[in-house]
Amino acid sequence: MIKILVVYHYFPHYRLPVLKALSNQENVDLEYTFLSGSTADIPINILMKADFTGLNFISVKNRWFFGKILWQTKVLWYSISNQYDCVVYLGNPNFTTTWLGAFFARVIGKPVLFWTHGFLKTKSFSDKIRKIFFRIPNALLLYGNKAKDNLISRGFNVDRLFVIYNSLDFENQIKIKQTINEKDVFKLKCKLFKNPNLPVLIFIGRLTQQKKLLDIIEVTQMLHNEGIPVNVLFVGDGAMREELIKSIELKLLSDYFTFFGECHKEEQLAQLITLSDLCVSPGEVGLTAIHSLVYGTPVVTHDSEKFQMPEYEAVVDGVTGGLYEFNSLDSLFLKVKEWLIKDNLQEIKDNCFKMINDYYNPKVQVKLINRAIKKILDEK
Predict the structure, then answer these.
(1) Which one of 3, 37, 204, 373 counts the least CB within 10 Å of its CB?
(2) How many beta carbons lie within 10 A of that of residue 355, not counting itself?
(3) pLDDT at 149 (0 to 100)
(4) What residue ranges define each of the domains in the chain, with the CATH number in brackets?
(5) CB-count burial class (<10 Å; 0-12, 13-18, 19+) for 2
């Protein structure tokens, strides 16, 4: 049995399905152990020790310096321990023990991989540090193809770059999806809006300046002015809530907007996404794209790779949604309008689901991670 250690600062809760999928494989000679900081010193949106029941889990102490430099106790020892044949680290250059652990593991001949975003933003001095950092491991596990292309353009060997995408709780979402019916969806629409027969634009996430939510209000007014009235559903909460409400009131659009607030129940989120015709994310889209597409709702977001999250690659213009010109309100308006008048609704839903079924789910991730690790081990 080949034993693999996966080292993170902490595991966010959405990672649990892929961790379980890695652990519960049949007829595979790979055994995964997960290591992360203890729950006492990290944010609340993490997996608790109880969540690791049935999984191999090691809890270590995280020590943070200046708010972002991390030292993890015992990581160096586990990195060179003969208990593990391969180590996968979260590829964050601010983690000092990752530098040291990965370096010493390589020195003793142990294969190392980094699970990382790679280079996704504009070039800067910190990129020089990252370039050195990303040379340490045998290979990189990447969230998307854009990251791979970026690394190739910087001189990295394509044979050491493996795209593994990202995922949510796909199996649970499929089960929930099968329970949703049109009558219940319309009843919910009637509760949420005074005009339930209108198309619905949905935004899911924190209501912050970074998300450019005022653009949604502006586009809504532009649509109404053109005789294309729509409803808008904000799912989430945040600092901009009151500012958004005031803007909506000034434009006399209060009857068309609903603030649902925070929602973490998948059954509720499934219905909210399903009743929506289009998910609009003027800021970076991230996992919201995956969440929306799995329920068949297309996504509109901007086209600037430098200011996006890797998951925006799931939004294929004209297929699973639309990409508008970055920082162009007119382009956003035209793209939303274009999608609202489409009539091949079933084809659109099928395209959206197919994207997640083919790429962005734990089963695919596990297959790709296993393939990358085995390739590196075979070359040892």
Answers:
(1) 3
(2) 21
(3) 94
(4) 2-167+361-378 (3.40.50.2000), 170-358 (3.40.50.2000)
(5) middle
